[in-house]
Amino acid sequence: MAISTIVSLSPSPTLLSPFSNPNPNTYIPLQFSLSASSRQALKLSASPPSLSFNKSFAVVKAASDAAILTEENNGAPQPASNKYYFVVANAKFMLDEEEHFKELLNERLRLYGERNKEQDFWLVIEPQFLDKFPKITSRLKRPAVALVSTNGPWITFMKLRLDRVLSESYEADTLEEALASNPANLEFEKPENWIAPYPKYEFGWWEAFLPPKSEVPQS
């Protein structure tokens, strides 16, 4: 038995595109039937993108998410670490010019407070450990300021965010040794014309992120 395809020259409103000209002389609408396999193919082509696309997109976001991956398991005890990671730049850039730096630190401190997590990052002004890195110090303007943490992935994230910083790691037996600093005098000139729609950060905002002061025994 022969199977024929019917081509109708009469308009069929059910087959018209919403962008078609309603004049029947300007188009030739077709009436046809689709096989089951063809209908399935059309159904698949109209389906939303698969989850593989979402997974690929998640890779782009991974750099920022790496900053909090460690905190996801903060309920489990973590082994003590004697390795410290840091980014460093001159104090003018870190504390006075890089305006979003303070917000990044404040947000992380807030996150730690919500999770009852012990702080593991500090700002160190003129850190003594820089003596171990002559290649870095030769490129630094002084005084220098380092952001130090035991969380390597977060420091990598901060390096990407701050951009104009140098990064390395070192080991120390105690926290006091790791965060030891040399005396430094910080002075930043106030801009004559501040045109930003928000006030400039107050001098000394970084004091909340300095290492805890060692208690001096009373005589």
UniProtKB/TrEMBL annotation:
Top-rank taxon, per record: Eukaryota
Name of the featured protein: Ycf54 protein
UniProt family annotation: Belongs to the ycf54 family.
Species per Swiss-Prot/TrEMBL record: Dillenia turbinata
Residue ranges crossing the lipid bilayer per the database entry: none
InterPro entries the record matches: Ycf54, Ycf54-like_sf
PANTHER family in the cross-refs: PTHR35319, YCF54
Stretches of the chain forming a coiled coil according to its record: none
